[in-house]
Amino acid sequence: MARRSALLTLGSSLLSALALGPVRADVPPSGATVFANHCAVCHGPQGAGVPGSFPSLHEQVVAFSKTPAGRDYLVMVVTTGLMGELQVGGVTYRGVMPAQSVLSEPEVAAVLNYLGGGMGKAKAASPPFTPKEVVDLRAHHADRSAQNTRALRPAVSEP
Fold this sequence. Notes:
- By secondary structure, the chain is mostly helical.
- It has a single domain (about 30-150), classed as Cytochrome c-like domain (Cytochrome Bc1 Complex, Chain D, domain 2, Orthogonal Bundle).
- About 50% of the residues lie in helices and about 10% in strands.
- The protein has helices at about 1-20, 30-40, 40-45, 60-65, 70-80, 105-115, 130-140, 145-150; strands at about 80-90, 90-95.
- A hairpin with a 2-residue loop joins strand 1 and strand 2 (about 90-95).
- Helix 5 (about 70-80) runs antiparallel to helix 8.
- The radius of gyration is 19 Å and the shape is globular.
């Protein structure tokens, strides 16, 4: 009897899932969802960071997304992670950001656009990232490592 009940429950769940329809590949991913699932655990739900542990993402993403070198750096940070010392807002961080290599090109573009647009609260200060741009920038780096990505970090003046 318990087995039959389990099968009926499974069957009902499958029918419910089918009624919702398949996930559409033509719908772009939500930058907010990607951020919440992959970034917020360290950088906080508002991207403000944790002083001394994880840097704020607000000004950094906007500043870096305005230049070709900065855009290259941002894509590689998300893709390969980051290792080494860096200064953000006058605070020195020494740590490791894990690679988010499970993210697709559309997801990388979506999360960078989300952050560059003030997490949905402002107009992006630079042209949006596209999945094609993410593919092209990744292709420029044969040695994809967190250490090498640190060397890509351009100098920017922070507000």
